[in-house]
Amino acid sequence: MAVQVAPSALESRRSSRSSDPAGPTFVHQTGPSGPRRRPHRAATLLLTALIVAAAGSAGVLITAQQQVTRIARVKGLENVLSPPNANVENYLLVGSDSRAGEDPSSPDFGGIGGVDTVNGNRSDTIMVLRRDLAGGPTSLLSLPRDLWVDIPGRQNKSRINAAYQDGPAVLIQTVQQSLGIPIQHYVEVDFQGFKSLVDAIGGVRVCFISPARDTHTGLNIPVPGCFVLDGIQGLAYARSRHYETYENDMWKEDPSSDLGRIKRQQQFINTALQAALAKVKGNPLTAGDVLVSSTGALRLDSQLDVLGAASALRGAVGSGLKTFSPPVVGKTINGNAVLVFGAGAQAFVDYFSGVSNTPPVSA
User: Fold this and answer.
1) Is the predicted pLDDT of residue 160 greater than 90, yes or no?
2) Residue 135, exposed/middle/buried by CB under 10 A (0-12, 13-18, 19+)?
3) 357, 134 in Cβ contact below 8 A?
4) Distance (Å, rounded) from C-alpha 187 to C-alpha 74?
5) Is the dihedral of CA 197, 203, 204, 206 positive or negative?
6) Distance (Å, whole) CA 238 – CA 197
7) Residue 325: pLDDT over 60
8) SS3 14
9) Contact 163/174 with Cβ under 8 angstroms?
10) Residue 210 resides in a domain
11) 329 pairs with which residues across the strands?
12) Looking at the 3D structure of the chain, how many domains does it have?
């Protein structure tokens, strides 16, 4: 399993290919001598919040205002979103695995595929971002894709990631009605957007205590050490459900599957936030350029004030997010291997719904 550790703990095992104290960088090129692929699509609401909070100059704010007008809005969600809550404001963050727009010449196309191999829309990642209106910590709850729930409009239960096939409104209703967590805003980013986020901030540093791979997503870490992952390898890492490590002369797959992936995603997001903060603080003039490449593939609800939310989420920038995973139990229902909420799950619902301000304890 990948872990963040002190650089000195891995110093003796770093790849000899790089003398950079941060570790080697995985950078994909368009050809043997081609330039690094320029990020051109999307980042996330959190990245916008971070840039506005860190830079804060008039020029950056003007650029941000110009870019906000380019963000696509999902109409009709105001009919299903919850009204303002006195204690918390929740954002439903969805990573879409739509293959639309994927470049067949991209090095990771084989691991992602195109619309001819995977049709329609599915949610690859579902998270709830909780903003404490009293000024407490900003928190992130990851929901497993295999969580077995009632989906409005369907007669039988299904996995929660299937709700997105019926549209963002149905996914929002599923989280609110089946899980009991109110949602005030909706934020969606696709595969291209995730890769662009990572490339826009110069990559994300991840440390590995052993070689790692996922032959399904294309992740390939040949030696132990700390690496700066570019957008392509970053996506392969964050998507990995068949994560393997090389131990005792053999490859071993992580038995936790999607739950292990959730932990890696949470770690990756926190590290990415800190990397973006360092980049913008080190050179505030780069903030405008990053914003230009950070809004093209986002989809938001029509009521979300991006710059207002950015200002409100400043606390998540410097201190990082508190991450949570609800307790779940594996079951086989009608031949489906699924997950259901386990003992103690209500504490997570209470916290993210604003009923309680006491953070739950993740298993």
Assistant:
1) yes
2) exposed
3) yes
4) 9
5) positive
6) 13
7) yes
8) coil
9) yes
10) yes
11) 340
12) 1
290 pLDDT band (50/70/90 cuts)?
Answer: low
For tokens 């209703």, name the residue.
173
- CATH code (residue 224): 3.40.630.190
- What single letter denotes the amino acid at residue 303? Q
Average pLDDT, the chain: 77
- The whole domain housing 20 covers 7-353
Look up residue 353 and give its two tokens.
């719904």
> In this structure, is residue 76 part of a structural domain?
yes
Tell me the pLDDT tens digit for each residue of 223-271.
999 999 998 999 999 889 899 999 999 999 999 888 888 888 888 887 8
In the sheet with 244-247, reading across from the earlier edge strand, the strands are 219-221, 212-214, 244-247, 250-253
Per the document, the length of the chain is 363
Cα four-point dihedral sign 96, 311, 358, 3? positive
Task: Work out the percent of the chain whose per-residue pLDDT is above 70.
Answer: 67
Q: Is 55 left (phi over 0), alpha (psi -120 to 50) or beta?
A: alpha
360 belongs to a structural domain: no
DSSP state string for 240-284: -SS-EEEETTEEEE-TTTHHHHHHHHHHHHHHHHHHHHHHHHH-T
User: If you average pLDDT over residues 25-31, what whole number do you get?
Assistant: 40
pLDDT (0 to 100) of residue 257: 80
Place of tokens 């992580």: 254
Closest CA to 183 of 301, 75, 293: 301
Please tell me what DSSP assigns to residue 223.
S
Q: Is 2 within a domain? A: no
Residue linked to tokens 């963040």: 4
CA-nearest of 179, 176, 178 to 80 is 176
Which pLDDT score, from 0 to 100, does residue 135 have? 83
